[in-house]
Amino acid sequence: MSDDTCEKTGFLEESPNAKSSMRLMCFLSLIAALVFGYMELKAKVPFPNLTTMFLVSAFAPKAVQKFAESKTN
Question: Which pLDDT score, from 0 to 100, does residue 1 have?
Answer without folding.
Answer: 47
